[in-house]
Amino acid sequence: MATTLATAAEPVVHAARLENVSKSYTTPGGQQLVLDGISLDVAPGEFVTLLGASGCGKSTLLNLVAGLDRPTSGSLTTDGRPALMFQEHALFPWLTAGKNIELALKLGGVPKPQRRARAEELLELVRLKGAYGKRVHELSGGMRQRVALARALAQESKLLLMDEPFAALDAITRDVLHDELTRIWQETGVSVLFVTHNVREAVRLAQRVVLLSSRPGRVAREWTVDIPQPRRIEDAPVAELSREITEVLRGEIRRHGQH
Amino acid sequence: MASTDTKTDRSAELADVEAGLDALETTETGRTPVRRIVVDKVLPPIVAITVVLVVWQALISFKVVDDPSKLPSPADVGREFQAAWLQGTLLDFIWTSVSRGLLGFLLALAIGTPLGVLVARVKFVRAAIGPILSGLQSLPSVAWVPAAVIWLGLNNSMMYAVILLGAVPSVANGLVSGIDQVPPLFLRAGRTMGATGLRGAWHIVLPAALPGYLAGLKQGWAFSWRSLMAAEIIASSPDLGIGLGALLENGRNASSMPMVFQAIILILFVGVAIDLLIFSPLERWVLRNRGLLVKS
After folding, report:
1. Would the ipTM clear 0.90, i.e. be above it?
2. Do B192 and A83 touch (CB under 8 A)?
3. Which pLDDT tens digit goes with each residue over A125-174?
4. Does residue B79 lie in a domain region?
5. CATH superfamily of A23-82+157-259
6. Which of A88, A92, A101 to mutate to test the interface with B (most CBs of B within 10 A)?
7. How far is CA A58 from the centre of its chain?
8. What protein family does this chain belong to (chain B) (predicted)?
């Protein structure tokens, strides 16, 4: 009863909510704390980037949010099961581009007669009309990531987790995919939690940038990015904010050299 | 509506840039023309066989080996084939062995596959029989023939037992290494899509393990065939019908070198033919679909 009332009075206002989440692993040298008291909300339709240097536990954090791992302490809730996109495309090479998307639809419970049309629709959304029957190895790196994006969107999740998805691409392709991701995010209204170590990428894409410190990962600072979209990575305001964030990030990294 | 116009312009421009990148970064892979296949794949083995025949004939013609009971001429062996063909027994010899071999192999498949899944997925089973299974692979299955004869007698069950002992470890081990080599990334991707447990095994693990499994099948067939020949040579009995191994043994008993040669050629021919007609195309098809077959 209480739950119902709470829901009625306060509809779900977050795609993901992390409260004081910590994660530690048991290593031969004892307990190793990877994430220390992370609190973070992602609002519905919000685009948040997580930024940090090596050892900030970005991937651990995404695994927790994706439900692939459990936090040691703290609470974590998401609105349904999030979709996850990796740095490597992770498409299944025994299936065509279209069938990869259809597998996600099938596992998500979409009835068979609708799958084909929905897969074509998603391919069109990432501008890969006609790639349905293509094998993964026949696609370029950028095309693979777009199919992977389409497959992630096929899960109809409220939250899309992205683990440095463009890090392995060349600069021109990455730039184009930034534009694409922004467009698709605006068209679909999905919430995005995007992990990267590239400051400009973070500023180019996000409404909010969250900087994590390293070893253990803590939220160091947050910035709200109110530069209007469409942005370009070389725009002056993007560069300016990137410089500011980079300064703080360098300060964070510098601490680790002073022992 | 200047802003809307620029927005559409931008979107159209982006689509064009993207289409350009896609076109630049993909290469069309067409099929190889038939002429190329003939020159690259069919011609070399024909040349090799011709060379062997020429050298063989030369040894006879120049009297390097002047003893037909040691080395019969290609023509003598040819006449042996012709006689068997005219009597209608040639296909019987082949069919007796091939039907046994394939049936035995299918049994090995039916036993080796679940065994492989168990060894790959259940820790205790792996620790218990994993090493034995790999060890069995290096034990020549001819070593089982005496035991199988004593246990089962001179009959078809004994043949199948020897085939199974030879082929099951290969099939199981192939599947185990196939499953072990499934990239963890695929498993993670599958899990985030909701493919866990049986659904994960069916949609992710088994298809990902297919290349390793096929390699195991190929080796399993080679082992089946070898084991069967060993069994047929050692355990010949009139009740068993004349397979290729028995043909070889009969040739030896009759001191008929042409018959021995005929049997050896047939054994080799069947082994190669099954591989060439069934396993190689299957393996190539799977690898090509996954872009794992590098065209040279």
Report:
1. no
2. yes
3. 888 888 898 888 888 888 899 999 999 999 988 899 999 988 888 888 88
4. yes
5. P-loop containing nucleotide triphosphate hydrolases (3.40.50.300)
6. A92
7. 10
8. Belongs to the binding-protein-dependent transport system permease family.
